[in-house]
Specification:
It is built from 4 helices and no strands. The protein starts with 10 loop residues before the first helix and ends in a 10-residue tail after the last helix. It has one domain. About 60% of the residues lie in helices and about 0% in strands. The protein is an all-alpha fold.
Length: about 70
């Protein structure tokens, strides 16, 4: 198994991850691992659909859903 370190993680992202972990009865590390696995294994069509929906939203609403590339 590989290890990664995530630096400069926004405090709000960490809080949300902790909340999701609590909802699912997992540690934050388990939640991060599960979330990463789900996102990178989503079928390309599903990712494209999400991006298409986001592009179709008015600018003010689209900002609620930041694109994955904006998080980099």
């Amino acid at each position: 198994m590989s290890r990664i370190t995530i630096r400069n993680l926004d405090d709000d992202v960490k809080r949300r991850l902790l909340a999701r972990a609590a909802e699912h009865g997992r540690s934050m590390e388990e939640e991060a691992r599960e979330t990463l696995c789900q996102v990178v294994t989503w079928p390309r069509a599903l990712r494209d659909l999400g991006q298409s929906i986001q592009r179709g939203l008015p600018k003010s609403e689209a900002s609620i859903f930041p694109s994955p590339s904006a998080a980099r």
